[in-house]
Amino acid sequence: MLQLSPEERAMLSGELGPGVRKAMEIVVALGRIYGARRLVEVGSVQVAGVSYRNLGEAGLDFLSQWADQGVRVRVSTTLNPAGMDLHAWRELGFSEIFARRQLAVIEAFERFGVRATCTCTPYLVGNVPRLGEHVAWAESSAVSYANSVLGARTNREGGPSALAAAITGRTAAYGLHLDESRCAKLRVDVCCPVQSLADFGALGYLVGKAAGNRVPYFVGLEGAGPNALKALGAAMAASGAVALYHVAGVTPEADMQDTLSRDHETLVVDDLRPAYAALNSDVRGIDLVWFGCPHAGLEEIAEIVWLLDGRRVGTALWITAARDVRQQAEVQGLVAAVEACGGRVVADMCAVVAPMQELGFRTVATSSAKGATYLPSHAGLIVRYGTIAQCVEAAVSGAWAS
Ligand code: F3S
Q1: Per residue in 64-110, pLDDT tens?
Q2: In the chain, how long is the greatest CA-to-CA distance?
Q3: Ligand 1 contact via 350 beta carbon (within 6 Å)
């Protein structure tokens, strides 16, 4: 039976206005569906469902009407990527019609008081939850990072449920908010070399498929850094529904008592080649090389610049990043270095939710296993998957080297 505090009951009864009541109705409905006994206050929210390509007119109307009720978020709330760069959309070839509707979506979110960060890496732009803090995040790769690498507590929220949590400052205490749901039921023994970020993505792809929504516990990845974990978690969240994982000796909850359930199953991974085979088509000509899924940090942009080594690219080359990160990259001369080679550091957007075919792209090379998983079905693109170095070479030559 879900217990509500007097303030929560006031929100539900409409004392704080119809917009807050609607938000609390969503939070309470989810709590009842999942058998929560109470709500918890959240420290921050990440809202997804931003691209006009996915929302359409119905989604935009839903948001605008809710915002018209004068309702505001109560906690720090950041936003997922949109379907275009909010500043450079014209130069990149997005249509006026799409841009106008996409900007209307952003404006609706801003009326709620949401920060239009438009990134799937809120943890790179100041939204960094503490260990054990309850948050309500949407965006599967960010959820995975928050739970696993930062040790915060969030379920995989949907767009409306995350916005409802932001407005009420609450989420229902079920799933990964509870200790018992955070213990691993699948031990993964990694018995092959996992070196590049693409290897981590390939490993994540395989484990995500096997794990479904179970919590994996990795043994054999000691020394994995934040970028590797970002790639691993994003891939598992895409090929499966993994929202939390632990890595022995690395992630904050891995070495706590009872993190690995006594009745766990064990999966041995000794070969990453099946993942590379599954994520690759046999296309050779490449239209676009895409980095930054999840959005790139400065280190990744610097590595691409180093690998380009001043060479001109023969394809389009996009590195997607948060606008704040792009600005830092600009200060460090990295944006100019990418542009001197013919590439772009693109802010605010994600190629998976952008109208890529309207821009004339048919084939893409990427070092992101999440991107390679979703691009064929969501953006209608034919994909090559490999290391950052392989993708840079494809950008320079215009073709994927076998
Ligand atoms: Fe981010 Fe889009 Fe990839 S939201 S994780 S760039 S699929």
Answers
A1: 999 999 999 999 999 999 999 999 999 999 999 999 999 999 999 99
A2: 65
A3: yes
Residue nearest to atom 5 of ligand 1 (CA): 294
Structure tokens at 22: 């609607």
Q: Are residues 37 and 171 in the same domain?
A: yes
- Residue after which a domain boundary falls, among 256, 276, 296: 276
Domain membership of residue 239 as a residue range = 183-276
Ligand 1 atom 4: residue of nearest CA: 120
Number of structural domains in the chain: 3
Residue 350 domain flag: yes
- Rounded to an integer, what distance in angstroms lies between the CA atom of residue 155 and that of residue 153? 7
pTM: 0.97
Which CATH number characterizes residue 78's domain? 3.30.499.10
Task: Give the nearest ligand 1 atom to 368 CA.
Answer: 3
233 touches ligand 1 (CB under 6 Å):
no
Confidence at residue 213, expressed as pLDDT on a 0 to 100 scale: 85
Query: Which of 84, 120, 367, 375 best tests ligand 1's pocket when mutated (most atoms within 8 Å of CB)?
Result: 120
Question: Can you give the C-alpha Rg of the chain in angstroms?
Answer: 21
1, part of any domain: no
Q: Tell me if 402 is assigned to some domain.
A: no
Q: How far separated are the first and last CA of the chain, in Å rounded?
A: 59
Question: What are the residues facing 366 on neighbouring strands?
Answer: 290, 385
